[in-house]
Design brief:
mainly beta; 14 strands; globular; 3 helices; 12-stranded antiparallel β-barrel; Outer membrane phospholipase (ompla), Chain C
Length: 257
Amino acid sequence: MFSFSTLMIFSQASAAEKNIRDGGYLDFGVGQGHESDPFIFDNEDDSGLDLYVNGRYQLYGVFVELPHGTSKQQSTVLSLGYNFLNTENWSYDIQLAMNHRDLEHKVPGTERVSTRESHSKLGLRILGDFDQTHLKFIVAGASGDPDVGLYASAWLSQNYQYYNWDVYGSIGIEYRNEGVVNYFYGVNENEFEGLPSYKGDAGFEYTGQVGASYPINEHWVFEAFARTTLLPTGITDSPLVDGNRVVKAAVVVKYVF
């Protein structure tokens, strides 16, 4: 759940001076993709046509983001925050966002669905930009139940220009603590008929992605990417999961404003 009162606090705290990151961008597109994941009873199927929206607008340091683009670096639909400090290469944000998507496990042999709802949590985000090299660090409350602890992640991405092609690669590591693992992937006694109860341990989740984009004209861009996420054993040992990786690839045509 997003707290717009939090955004108002950020707004009141912002100075009257313009922030150097003030401004915005927006692109949206449609892509044909395929996703293979090991979540046995999850109803969500991300294969097929999908809508990609990647936008950001900031005024006096207060920002709103729609990060449903081709990068997996944020598992959130909407992000609110306040950019409180900028140096030559680093930016520091207070951010309200989700760091795990909702899961809906359909109970075998029934029409009942066990919903694991993700919640937006407040955290610190640090961005580093060094020419074509980009860094991102996040420390925040973990999405899930109110008291499941901390979430932490680190991302490194690198861009290369080859004629008109922009080729990129990124790697990331995310920490999932025991509370998060058990909220989303644990099984309580008698919750799923025929499945044993399960409690998992904390662990690290690793993601690697490669992609390339090509400008068709001033506003239209073609992009293709492939991404693999390796899940921690605390998740993969769950009876709700059969496998250790999530793989997604897509080709996208998007319009850039």
